[in-house]
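Lab notes, practical 5.
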Amino acid sequence: MNIAIVLAGGTGTRVGADIPKQFIKVMGKPILAYTLEIFQKNQNIDAIEVVCHQDWIDEIENIDREYGFGKVRWIVTGGGTFQESVMNGIFHLKGKILSEDLVIISFGVSPMTTDDIIDDSIRVCMEHGNAIASEDIPLCTCIKDDEYGSTQNIFRETLKGFSNPWTFRFGELCDAYETAGDRGILESLEPHTTSLYLALGKRLWFSKTVSTNFKITTKEDLDLFEGYLLLQQKRSLEPGNSR
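Output from the prediction step:
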């Protein structure tokens, strides 16, 4: 089985809204619904688990009912940090799926992920054991001395930017979190599953992504997403387009 774990527990303070950003409506539809729809329609996804804050479980259930996401099988309470939410989602699946099954982890506010990105993530993970959606860095880069400037260059040719999703073999991912817990290193990690694997000396494998596949974080990102939807609508109305 291939199970999508959709993380929808963030607060979205940088967007400046009075509700978590995954529930903000863009063109009349919650951002989370767009994200869930992607995994619902993908032929390689068998089931979906949503991880969210306890106070918003009812809203997740309402979205599930309204949009008919038949693949949503579990709604799980998240934790106080990113890592805790991932762990809650992972360990909740113990006894429900097999060690060799794949889990495809996605932000609930990454509504521009495409089928080919998901499919390539699954393909790479099946071959190597994990897959991190990544792309080359197009901008020149540096190390910040402080918020005002820098004196240290980084060659962009040596860098990859991580995107969304990240796919893992379920059993190996469980073992990684259990090992990190036993070693007491989770508290010192940057908030990302990729940081966990690197801290354990594991190799990460790159899968494809594109620059439009970003996590909505700011008000400007909301505008970009609305523009993306309008472009999709325009293209769907063009002659000869059957979408």
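Observations recorded by the TA: The mean pLDDT is 92. The chain has one domain: 2-134+161-236.
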